[in-house]
Amino acid sequence: MKIYKKTINFCLVVILLIFPTTYSNSKSVPDSFADLAEKLMPSVVNISSTQTIKTSANPFPFEFPPGSPFEDMFKDFNRPTERKATALGSGFIIDEKGIVVTNNHVIQGAEDIIVSVNGSKEYKAKVIGKDPYMDLAVLEIQGEEKFIPVKFGNSDKARVGDWVIAIGNPFGFGGTVTSGIVSSRNRDIGLTRYDDFIQTDASINQGNSGGPLFNLKGEVIGINTAIIAPGASGSIGIGFAIPANPAEKVINQLIKFGETKRGWLGVRIQEVTKEIAEVENLQEAYGALVASVSENSPADKSGIKAGDIILEFDGTKVDTMRTLPKLVAQTEVGKRVILKIWRNQKLISKRVLLGRLESSTEFKAEKKDEPDKSKYKKINSLKILVRDLSKQDISERKLPKNTSGVVVMEVLEGSPLMFVSVNDVIVELQKKKIINSTQFLKLVEEVINKGAKTLYLAIFNSNNQRSYITVKLK
Q1: Quick check: is 184 catalytic?
Q2: Which residues pair with 140 in a beta bridge?
Q3: Model confidence pLDDT, tens digit, residues 21-46
C-alpha cells in the first residue's frame, strides 16, 4: 500500500513539473489581429484592369441562310462592336518606389491598369514583367510619392497549423482581412508548371488573387492565387498561395531583367512507379525517370541517357517526378550541379552545366503553340470553354466555307455535354446558326431561361462528320 501511494505521488510530481514547462513554451492564440492588420493595410492594393472585347452582333431578329443574296446585302449591318471588360484583383507593395506584386492572370491582356492604395488614392500602373508559368506579375505605380512596402518572410519555415492572415479585394470589397491557419504545404493542384502551394483555410474569394498571405510577424509568406469552389459557390476554406521563397526569386528576375531566367536540364521525364522501382531494384519508388534527352541540351552534353533515374539534384532528393522541374527552374543559369543517377542498378554521379530554359528550342516551340486562353469564353451553365471558329480552322479542317460556330476547348467536370469532345465544332443550337462565342452564350442563356429541358445541337466532330445530338438539362 505504501509503495502504491509513493508511486502516485511521484507521478503527480512529474506531471506538475512537465505541464507548466509545456504550457509556457506553447504559442498563445492571438487576442486580436487589429494592430497587425492596421499596420499592413497601407501596403495592400486593389487592382482594376480593363481590356477591350470585340463582338459581332446581328441587329436583326432573324438570320439569313448561308449563301443567301441578302447575306451579302446586309453584311455591313453586322459590324463588330467593342465593349470594355474589367477584372478585379489584389496586390502588395514591396518597394517604396511603388513596385507591386500580383498574379499574372489579374492583369493578363490588360490595356489599362489602375491601382488603388489604402482604399483611397488611385494610380495608373505599368507592367515591369510577368511570368505565366508561376502566375506572377510585377507592376510599377506611376506616382511620385513614397509608398509603404512589406517584406517577404521565409516560407520554408511556415508550419502546418501556423496562424496566417489574408488581405485583399474580394468581389471588389477592398481592404478585407481574413484569418486562418496553414492547412497544408507543398500542394500540387495541376494549376501551373511549378505547383508547390501553401494551403490555407483563411477565407479567399474572387478578387483576392495576387494578394498577400501574412504570418504573425507581418511578413509575406505566400501570394494568394487559387481556391476550390464547387459550383462557383465561393470560399469553402480551401485556398492556395504561391510560397514566398520561390516567388521572390522570380520577382527579383522580373524586376532586374523584365523576364525570367530559369535553369534548364533538357530531359523529358516520367514517374517512377512501384513496378519500375521493382524492375530497377530500387528500394523505394522515387526520383524522375528520364524518358528522352533533348539533343545538344545540358543533359545530353553531360552524358545523361534515356532510362536513367535521377535520384538527387544538387544535393536535394528528388522525391517525386514533379520535384525535379521545380529544383532545376530555381537554380541559377550557368551553375554546375551534381546529379545522382540510378543506371543499370548502380548509383553514379554526373556533373551538369545548366542552360537557360527560355533559350531552349522546346520552350520557344511550346510558347509559340500555347493557346491564348484569354480568347476562350466559359459557358457556366454548360461547364465548357469555347472559342470562335476561325478562317484558319475552316481551311485546315476543310470545313464548308460558310461554316461558323464555336470550337470546344475544354469540357469541365460535371458538364451535361458528355458526348461532346475537345475540338468539336458546335454550329447550331435549337436549329439556330451559331455565329460566335458571344452569340452562343446569349443563345444558351435564352434557351435555358425559357425553361428548355433539352438542348438540340449540331456539331462537326474531329473527323469533320456533321451530326445532331440532344443534351438533357438537369
Answers
A1: no
A2: 99, 126
A3: 333 344 566 789 999 999 999 999 99
